Amino acid sequence: MAENKGFFGKLKSGLEKTRNGFVKSMDSVFHGFSSIDEDFYEELEEMLIMGDVGVNTTETLLERLKKGVKEKRIKEPSEARDLFVEIIKDIMKLPDDAYDFEKGNCVIMVVGVNGVGKTTTVGKLAGRMKESGKKVLIASADTFRAAANEQLTGWAKRADVDIISSKEGADPASVVYDALCAAKARKTDVLICDTAGRLHNKKNLMEELKKMNRIVDKELSDAKRETWVVLDSTTGQNALNQAKEFNEVASLSGIVLTKMDGTAKGGIAIAISNELNIPVKYIGVGEGIDDLQKFNPDEFIEALFTPEKE
Q1: For the chain, which residues make up each domain, given as ranges?
Q2: Distance CA 180, CA 114 (A)
Q3: In this structure, which of 66, 94, 180, 288 has its CB flanked by the most CB atoms within 10 Å?
Q4: Dmax of the chain from CA atoms?
């Protein structure tokens, strides 16, 4: 319980900018209107779009709110707030099998464009999983980015896990092959592969990932398979577009949202949950190795929408 409380405290402080920006603006609508009318809905719509929720998700939220207000015969805007929070919670709900990958051997491919914190996230994920008692190995297969190896090796040391790497420009699939052989020999529970993050040539990236997956099929066929994209929360709708593009190439099974502590908007987390139908599995709320947290929608919403005590 103490650990959970510590995590919640970190989550709440990590979401401070979003709470003081996006949520405060939204609350000004719920508490600033005396009746629920078209002006109320228009103002709320504007606040949601400005908060990076996006047009499509804003429409979904408002449709559901209008329906709920009518069914429950809610008259006061302040009462509609609780209903609205429940709607958001429902949209962000995770599927029952979201963390099934933890139950056995697992290979996780991690994709994401340069600058989103992908390599850092791989290191933090390795640290989290090692802490939970898993035997973890990292494959440094983003061989086209200068200094990726060096950066990831530093994180592997911090996380106290082994890493398999090669020289810059090497065939990424060969690194994954070496890592799979090492994973089998060392009886590894989780292999995390930092893979290329180039979207300008989707065909090459698709072929690269297919090649890696064929090698996994051959060498570790019984392992659970995950492909996650790392997204920078501060880039808003651009992050959503990246996820859509990567999903076309890689059939994503999960999303990691980084830099949630760095955005005053934060509505992008709601938009991603609503539009992609891909679960958010981890969120980053700080720089430290412990600041990457497993995503819990109820805790996230509570941390976001519970005001600070005066």
Answers
A1: 1-310
A2: 25
A3: 180
A4: 67
Pairing relationship of beta strands 224-232 and 190-194 according to DSSP bridges? unpaired
Q: Which pLDDT tens digit goes with each residue over 254-266?
A: 999 999 999 888 8
Is the model more confident about 86 or about 147? 86
| N-terminal to C-terminal alpha carbon distance within the chain | 25
DSSP state, 22?
I
- Torsion angles phi and psi, residue 294, rounded to 5: -60, 135
pLDDT digits (tens, 9 = 90+) for 132-166: 999 999 999 988 777 788 899 999 999 999 999 98
Residue with tokens 């934060």: 266
The pLDDT, as a whole number, for residue 2 is 42
Q: Which residue has the tokens 């340069």?
A: 114
Helix (H, G, I), strand (E, B) or coil at 255: strand
CATH superfamily of 1-310: P-loop containing nucleotide triphosphate hydrolases (3.40.50.300)
pTM: 0.91
Dig out the tokens for 66 from the structure.
């209008």
Candidates 254, 136, 243; CA nearest to 186 is 136
